[in-house]
Amino acid sequence: PGIERGILHPFIELISGLPNISKAAVNQMRPRLEKNPKRLIKSFTRSWLDADRDMATSPENYYSLILNLKVVTECGANGVVGDVLTHHKGWDIDLCKVRHSSICIWSGEADPAAKPSMPAYYQKKIPGHQPLVMGPNEGHVTMLKNYSRRILAKF
Predict the structure, then answer these.
(1) 118 contacts: CB under 8 Å, gap ≥ 6
(2) For residue 62, what are the contacts with CB-CB under 8 A and spacing of at least 6?
(3) Phi/psi of residue 58, each to 5°?
């Protein structure tokens, strides 16, 4: 109620809906990563916001992205699928009961995964919160990169 559904990456939707079939897909990812990483990265980032994809695939970040994908697929599919399922299931947290906290929500206004109504909804539900920070034209990845100093300064 009051939240516009974000757009999940197709791979995350597949894992959430069909975890057993997803394990086979993850197991196929590693050989594809070794054989033709450029093609896999292009496919994997196709649904990303342009700014996020450009940042992640820029020369200074491209090899880190490949290394990260190699690390997460190194031990097979169970870890990857388990992480996605844990992240995307309901956590049963009553935000109204969160007390004595200093919570600040940071979100990109252009993030297709978390539409602006989502952080605004959570902002209203968390008592004693700090002001909501919305990055104009920022996506899921670029928000972290471009606001990292400000985010870390809050700690």
Answers:
(1) 3, 4, 6, 107
(2) 41, 56
(3) -65, 155
Cβ pair 36, 141 in contact under 8 A: no
Contact 119, 107 (CB under 8 A): yes
The 3-state secondary structure of 64-126 reads HHHHHHHHHHCCCHHHHHHHHHHHHCCCCCCHHHCCCCCCCCEEECCCCCCCCHHHHHHHHHC
pLDDT digits (tens, 9 = 90+) for 98-123: 666 677 888 989 887 777 887 888 78
Strand 106-108 versus strand 133-135 pairing type: parallel
pLDDT digits (tens, 9 = 90+) for 27-76: 888 888 889 999 988 988 888 888 888 888 888 888 888 888 888 788 78
Q: Are 106 and 147 in contact (CB under 8 A)?
A: yes
**pLDDT value, residue 72:** 79
Q: What is the DSSP annotation of 26-49?
A: HHHHHHHHHH-HHHHHHHHTTTS-
Q: Where are the beta strands (DSSP E) in the chain?
A: 106-108, 133-135
Cβ atoms of 149 and 118 within 8 Å: the answer is: no
